[in-house]
Amino acid sequence: MRQIFKECSIKKSYERRREVADAVYLAGGSGVLALKSPVKPDCPLVDISALVPKDIVKKDGRLVIGAGATFQDVIDSALVPSWLKDACHLMASMSLRMQATVAGNVASLRDDSYLIPALLAGDTILHVYGEEGEKDVPLADYVHRGGCSCIILALSIDDGCKVGIHRIARSSSSHSAVNVAVGTHGVFACVKGSGFAFDEDDLGKMEYVDDIIDTAAYKRYVARECVDLLKEVDG
Ligand SMILES: Cc1cc2nc3c(=O)[nH]c(=O)nc-3n(C[C@H](O)[C@H](O)[C@H](O)COP(=O)(O)OP(=O)(O)OC[C@H]3O[C@@H](n4cnc5c(N)ncnc54)[C@H](O)[C@@H]3O)c2cc1C
């Protein structure tokens, strides 16, 4: 039987996750509770859904999105720039968008992530709770080191920058082969089977793999084409 812990604070949730072997956080549950989830059905969960902030506000010239905001909350907010709404719309199912949180998507670190390339292009800084209490971590560092056991509390985004996104998938509800974001802060991408690219150099050098999604040659080709297309549009 699965154990679900519900603590009264972020601190206690963090400590619980550290003390229970294999435990993962539960936010929207669209990843951890999904059929064929990499999280096993008997894996203990620490439910943080009622503890993480959900508000979307402007603060110190940046856009701050509470970790518990869902994809649909982001789309519905008048404060959010269109490129980030477009990234949230890549999750085609509205029922999933109403369940899945932005922080859950980041923490999942999926190589077909809907949001991570766009958020990297938005110079995102994560506000997290971890071993040293609350602190800020650039999203690029978080992704580079493969995440951490910390709880993401909020995301701070440069909403004044320009970002263009493009996702290549067989259908709107299929896993993406390539998801690229190009903007003021550079070129970022995730490639199925290969992981994340933080600039064009990474994209050129990364090892592309043949898998059920597509061939390595195709993914390499469309990744390059997406970057060129987005740069051309940016003009
Ligand atoms: C049919 C289907 C298809 C999907 N396809 C895609 C896809 O193509 N691309 C994609 O990116 N996603 C996909 N997803 C996965 C999922 O919907 C998203 O990644 C979602 O954003 C996860 O958010 P959540 O709130 O539901 O997280 P949960 O499922 O609750 O948690 C997911 C992970 O994030 C961690 N986590 C959650 N919140 C926090 C936090 N605040 N701090 C630290 N860690 C946290 C948990 O420990 C867990 O490991 C798909 C899901 C389904 C059901």
Task: Walk me through what this model shows.
- By secondary structure, this protein is of the alpha+beta class.
- It has 9 helices and 12 strands.
- The strands form 3 sheets. It has a 5-stranded antiparallel β-sheet with strand order 4-5-8-6-7. A 4-stranded antiparallel β-sheet has the order 9-10-11-12, sandwiched between helices.
- The chain is globular, with a radius of gyration of 17 Å.
- The chain starts with a strand and ends with a helix.
Number of strands: 12
Give the CA-CA distance, first to last residue.
Answer: 56 Å
Low-confidence residue ranges: none
Determine the mean pLDDT: 96
Quickly give the structural class. Answer: alpha+beta
C-alpha Rg, in Å? Answer: 17 Å
| Count of helical regions | 9
Can you tell me the overall shape? globular
- Residue share in helices? 25-40%
Helix and strand pattern: EHEEEEHHHHHEEHEEEEEHH
Regarding quaternary structure, what we see is single chain
> How are the strands of the biggest sheet laid out side by side?
4-5-8-6-7
Ligand species: flavin-adenine dinucleotide
SS strand fraction:
25-35%
Largest sheet: 5 strands, antiparallel
